[in-house]
Design brief:
Layout (H helix, E strand, L loop, with lengths): L16 H15 L12 H12 L12 H12 L21 H25 L4 H12 L2 H7 L5 H21 L7 H20 L3 H20 L6 H33 L12 H5 L5 H5 L10 E7 L8 E8 L14 E6 L7 E5 L20 E6 L6 E7 L7 E5 L13 E5 L16 E5 L5 E5 L18 E6 L11 E8 L5 H9 L12 H14 L13 H5 L5 E5 L6 E4 L3 H26 L7 H22 L15 H22 L3 H30 L6 H6 L13
Antiparallel strand pairs: 1-4, 1-12, 2-3, 3-7, 3-11, 4-5, 5-8, 6-7, 7-11, 8-9, 10-11, 13-14
Helix pairs in contact: 1-4, 1-5, 2-3, 3-4, 4-5, 4-6, 4-7, 5-18, 6-19, 7-8, 7-9, 8-9, 8-10, 9-10, 9-17, 16-18, 17-18
């Protein structure tokens, strides 16, 4: 043992100076002057709001995707000591001194910088030369659009980083497959593939496209393994389970963990609560939780309740009535019952309270012990303030003439008897004997006489697009929906506020309806229940897509016929645009076209048993195309099917894969089509000249990539290489 101490401990390491240099250049290009401009740049106005909400622990819902990307941006704010106090209300607003601009923009910039060495390593793992790999990295380094997008508090650079990391990890894992299966490094790269895929999906759902591509490639590789007789059945099963664990189980677990952290951090009530169910709202600190804390859990005969419509969009509303009646005749000449109006009211109000009554008894208080209402029970709903019974009959509703009018019954001594019996159907019941529960139970009310279902007609579903007229105080219509097969959320209600009624006298009961509840019963949701609801909201909640000045179609992206003005200096001509390197974009399109044409030519020739290139070169050509062309296709073509407002930055992940294809095609042409020394020399000279033009264009557009120096009117006009580009010129 002492003998070992006589010799020094020596550690040797191999350092790829290409990687070091590329990493340094990437950091310099993305981090230089990162705090400039010290103003809100384009979508920072959108993501900044969520960062502020994270800092204040206030719950929100963003229908653009999962929360992981937002949490990374918030991490930058946290590291910079941001307290969330900034009003993100307009692009160009100057940041005040308490906003750590550099810190907020740091993580996207680091992600963008690391994409440069990742591109280099991907081509090395694809078995291309270091020269080709260096070319790919430099093209990423000098791509103006990628620089612009990575220098601000935006998510695309983070998404592209995780996408490239997933591709690199899988390639390293696959290359280790032949001689180091189940080694430590084999497991590391396989697991990192799954982790990177889940992170990409967690940043934006666009990451799902590359994840599906890698799953397809992994499936194809495993299919080839099945045909390899050198693998035993046990070995194949182990490989299958390892891939299932790393590429399916771990990504799903990580995806859940993003939401777990998100919901743990955002425990306070906020402005987005109203689109969530009452149970979800009650689980947050403040807001509805202040009102519902301590309510009785089981609804009983005599309970005083408010009924919230489960749909909750475009706004939440509660079953409501007031002393006013329906007009004898509507504007279109149709008659009504002239009964007391029943509506859905989007604000909390004492007129939202109802009493659950047993039809066989007269009392409006809860007995001792309470008699709970169960699924299938018949009840009457008595309006708390006016003491009139919820009723429907064969009279057309005011705005929905094919449905029945819902009212509170007034006895006019005419031939229209009360029809006020309702059957309680618990939609989310576990058995037919379930008790109706506060907040947790989702309930339909089925009219006993006509089988109509109590339904709120929200703005979203009205063909007229309007609420009730002035006589209904612009409140939302409530109807009895006939012949209802299945159910829609607009037909489902839940008890939000609840107390056990104790006062039989009307005046005492009115005082009781205004007072808070006192009983203490918790209604906390489990994480999986909250995750399921939040995930469903993210997938189904869509804001109204409006035409934006800088929105574009997917066809505009290939030829870069569009741009986006990100920022304009308030006094000078300094400005920042999302504009790509024209030479790189055009070269990427040419490379894709050459790849497709050559692949088709090779396939036709191979069909005729003519092999123009060696088999290993063919396999390299196919595998490289599967990654680069496949990555471009899966990240681009789906946008033709999307009905959403699209912007040029949506094309950047696809563009990144297409850029990787350029050196792949160039090396293939140089190795296999330029056969003579003269042709190779001429080809090399052309490549050098072409790359010089890439750098020249990068330098030309640098002022609108970095926002400085400020350009004159003439210089700005000189940058308008296409008439469709909107370069801002101050008059």
């Amino acid at each position: 043992m002492l003998g070992l101490l006589k010799k020094p401990v020596v550690v040797t390491a191999e350092i790829n100076m290409n990687l070091v240099a590329l990493t340094v250049l990437g950091l310099m290009s993305r981090l230089w002057g990162l705090s400039y401009p010290r103003a809100v740049v384009f979508d920072e106005v959108y993501y900044g709001q969520f960062v502020s909400l994270y800092m204040k622990r206030i719950f929100f819902v963003d229908d653009s995707g999962p929360p992981f990307g937002h949490m990374l941006l918030a991490l930058g704010g946290y590291l910079g000591g941001f307290d969330g106090n900034f009003l993100w209300n307009r692009i160009g607003a100057e940041y005040n001194v308490n906003v750590p601009v550099w810190s907020l923009r740091l993580l996207p910039a680091l992600a963008g910088a690391l994409c440069v060495p990742l591109a280099y390593q991907i081509l090395v793992e694809l078995r291309f030369s270091h020269c080709a790999a260096l070319g790919a990295a430099l093209l990423i380094l000098l791509e103006n659009s990628l620089i612009t997008q990575s220098r601000f508090m935006l998510l695309e650079s983070i998404l592209i980083f995780f996408i490239l990391l997933a591709v690199l990890s899988y390639l390293k894992f696959y290359n280790l497959q032949r001689h180091s299966s189940f080694s430590g490094s084999w497991w590391f790269w396989l697991l990192l593939t799954g982790v990177a895929c889940s992170c990409a999906v967690g940043v934006k759902y666009m990451g799902l496209f590359t994840y599906m591509l890698l799953l397809a490639i992994a499936g194809l590789h495993f299919w080839h393994m099945i045909g390899d007789q050198s693998f035993s059945n046990v070995s194949l099963m182990c490989h299958f389970l390892a891939r299932g664990l790393a590429l399916l189980i771990i990504p799903m677990a990580m995806y859940l963990s993003f939401f777990y952290v998100h919901l743990t951090l955002l425990y306070r009530s906020g402005p987005h609560d109203q689109i969530m169910t009452s149970a979800f709202q009650a689980s947050l600190e403040g807001g509805l939780a202040r009102i519902t804390q301590g309510q009785p859990l089981e609804v009983a005969y005599g309970s005083q309740i408010t009924l919230r419509n489960v749909l909750g969009k475009p706004m939440q509303c509660w079953l409501h009535s007031h002393t006013n009646t329906y007009p004898i005749r509507y504007e279109n000449g149709r008659g009504s019952s002239h009964q007391q109006q029943v509506t859905c009211y989007p604000f909390k109000d004492v007129n939202n309270w109802w009493i659950v009554k047993d039809p066989g008894m007269q009392q409006l208080v809860v007995s001792n012990p309470p008699r709970p209402v169960r699924h299938g029970h018949i009840v009457q709903l008595v309006h708390g303030i006016t003491t009139r019974y919820l009723n429907t009959h064969d009279v057309a509703a005011p705005l929905s003439p094919h449905s029945q009018e819902v009212s509170c019954y007034i006895d006019y001594n005419i031939s229209m008897p009360a029809q006020n019996l309702w059957r309680v159907e618990i939609v989310n019941r576990e058995s037919d004997t379930d008790v109706w529960k506060t907040i947790l139970s989702e309930v339909r009310f089925v009219h006993v006489n006509t089988s109509a279902v109590l339904k709120a007609i929200n703005f979203h579903f009205q063909l007229s697009g309007a609420s009730l007229p002035e006589w209904g105080y612009r409140q939302l219509e409530v109807v009895g929906e006939k012949l209802s097969k299945g159910y829609h959320q607009s037909m489902v209600w839940n008890v939000e506020e609840h107390r056990y009624g104790k006062s039989q006298e009307q005046k005492e009961r009115e005082v009781e309806l205004h007072s808070p509840t006192q009983m203490d019963i918790s209604k906390n949701l489990s994480f999986m229940a909250k995750f399921t609801e939040l995930q469903w909201k993210i997938l189904t909640l869509k804001n109204e897509d409006t035409e934006h000045k800088y929105s574009s179609s997917a066809l505009d992206w290939i030829t870069m016929d569009t741009n986006i003005a990100y920022w304009l200096h308030p006094t000078s001509g300094a400005q920042i645009h999302l504009l790509g390197n024209v030479v790189t974009w055009a070269s990427a399109n040419v490379a894709a076209l050459v790849y497709l044409c050559l692949s088709l030519w090779y396939l036709l020739r191979r069909r005729r048993k003519i092999y123009d290139i060696p088999e290993d070169a063919w396999q390299l050509w196919v595998s490289a195309g599967g990654i680069s062309v496949g990555g471009w296709a899966v990240n681009y073509l789906p946008f033709f099917l999307m009905e959403k407002t699209l912007f040029l930055y949506h094309y950047l992940p696809a563009l990144t894969f297409q850029i990787l294809l350029i050196p792949i095609v160039l090396q293939h042409l140089g190795d296999h089509l330029c056969r003579s020394l003269l042709l190779k020399s001429m080809f090399s000279a052309l490549v050098v000249a072409w790359f010089s033009s890439v750098y020249l264009v990068y330098r030309t557009f640098s002022p609108v990539t970095y926002g400085e120096p400020s350009l004159s009117v003439g210089e700005l006009k000189g940058l308008r290489w296409k008439d469709s580009w909107n370069i801002l010129i101050r008059k």
